[in-house]
Known about the structure:
Layout: H1 3-10, E1 27-31, E2 34-37, E3 42-45, H2 48-51, H3 60-72, H4 84-96, E4 101-107, H5 110-127, H6 129-133, H7 136-144, E5 156-160, H8 169-173, E6 191-194, H9 202-212, E7 216-221, E8 225-226, E9 232-233, H10 236-248, E10 252-256, E11 280-283, E12 295-300, H11 301-305, H12 326-339, H13 342-365, E13 371-377, E14 380-385, H14 396-406, E15 409-410, E16 417-420, H15 428-445
Parallel strand pairs: 3-15, 5-6, 5-7, 7-10, 10-11
Antiparallel strand pairs: 1-2, 2-3, 4-12, 8-9, 11-12, 13-14, 14-16
Helix pairs in contact: 3-12, 4-12, 9-10
The protein binds pyridoxal-5'-phosphate.
Amino acid sequence: MSLVERDKKVIWHPFTQQKNMLSPVPITKGKDTLLFDENGNTYIDAISSWWVNLHGHANTYIAEKLYQQALQLEQVIFAGFTHEPAVNLAERLLAILPGNFSKIFYSDNGSTSTEVALKMAIQYWWNKREVENGKWKIESKARNNSQLTTHHSRTKILAFNNSYHGDTFGAMSVSDRSVFTLAFHNLLFEVIFIDTPTKENIQQIQSVIQQHKNEIAAFIYEPLVQGAGGIKMYDADLLNTILSTLKQHNIICIADEVMTGFGRTGKLFASEYVDVKPDIICLSKGLTGGTMALGVTACTSEIYNAYVTDDKLKTFFHGHSFTANPLACTTALASLDLLLKDDCLQKIKWIAEQHKKFIHQLTINHSLLTIKNLRILGTILAFEIVSGKDEYLNSISTTITQQAMQMGIYIRPLGNTVYIMPPYCITEDELDKVYRVILNIIQQSEQ
Ligand SMILES: *Cc1c(COP(=O)(O)O)cnc(C)c1O
C-alpha cells in the first residue's frame, strides 16, 4: 500500500473537507526552503509551512542543539522544577519584546498562548475585584459557603471583526464569527467586536469603547496584519489611537503576535511600529523557527503582581503537560541565535525590498484587472484574485495551489487571497522563481 492509501485509511486532515479530498503529497525530506516529495519533485515552501518556518527546513544548527538537549533532558514537569532552556529563553525574550514585560508563561501553541492571555487578563480583574468595588466582605462570606462567586465588573473582551486567534473555545470566541466557528456560535462567549480602524470609522470605534469602557477586561488584536482572516493589513497610527484610548481606561491590551512575531512584518515584532505597547503578548509559530510546537504569553509586572498574594484562590490555575518543554525551548533559543544575527536581519530587509520592487514592476507593466488590494508589509505579500466571492471557501484556492505546485512552488491561498511569506533563507533565484509563478498565476486568471 502506498503512503497515501495508508493515510486515507487512518488520518483526518486539518481544515480539510475529507470527501473527495485531493490526495495529500507525501513529503520525504525538507532542506532550507525546499520540500521534497516521494517522486523527487521539489517545492519552494513560499508560505513557510503555515507561517512557522523562519530559517528553512531541517536547519543543521537547530537540529544539533535539539539533539544535544535530547541527550541531556527531554522533558520535566514544570511545577516545582525549572531548567536552563526555559530560563534562558525567558531572559532572552524579555530583552527583545516590544514593551515593559516582566514574566513569561509557557504553553504549547498559538491557540493556548491566546487562551492563557485571555484567562490571565480576566482573572487579573477577578483578583483585583475587592479593590475595585468594595464587595470583598460579601464575597468572602459566599466563599466560606463554598459558593465561589465569579461576579466581577470587567469580564468582556473587545476584539476586531475578521480576527483569528486560534481554534480552542476561548480563542474561537474572540475570533471572527465565520465558517471556522459556525457550528459553535451559541457556545462561544459574548465579545464586543469592532472593525479594524480606518479614518472613516475611528470615531465610531472610539464611541463603542466609551460605551463599554467599564466592562471591558481586555482587548485582543493581531497588530497590523490579520493573518487567517485574509492577510488584511491596517494602519499603525490608527491602532495606536485605539490603544491609547484603551490604556486611559486601564483596559488590558493583548497583542497576538503569533503570526507577526520574529521578523515577519520587517521589524522583530509588529508592535514596534506602534507607540503604545501591549500589556500581554502572545507568541508561537516562528518562535522555534518552525521546529517544534511552543507557545509563550508574556505579561507586565502590573498583571503578574495581581496574582502574587497569600490568597491561594488568586493562583493562576493553568498549565499543560508539556509546559516549557526543554526541547522546544532549546529550538527557540537556537532559532533566536540565527534570527538575531546581522545577516538574517539584513535578509529580512532584503526580502521586503524585493517585494516592493516586484509589486512596482507588476503595477507598471500589467493592467492587473484580475487582481486587487496588492499589499506588502515586511516579508509578507498578498492580493486578491477577482474571481468568485471574497471568502475562505472560494475554490480558486485549490486550483492555484495545484498550478503553483506544478511550477515547483508551494502556496496555499486563503480563499481568493493569494499570499507569500517565505522562510528568511530564501535565495535570490528562488524568490525570483516565486515571483515568476505569481505572475504566471495572475496571467492565467486573465484568460
Ligand atoms: C495561527 C494563529 C493562532 C493559532 O495558533 P496555533 O498554533 O495554530 O494554535 C493564533 N493567532 C494568530 C494570529 C495566528 O496566526
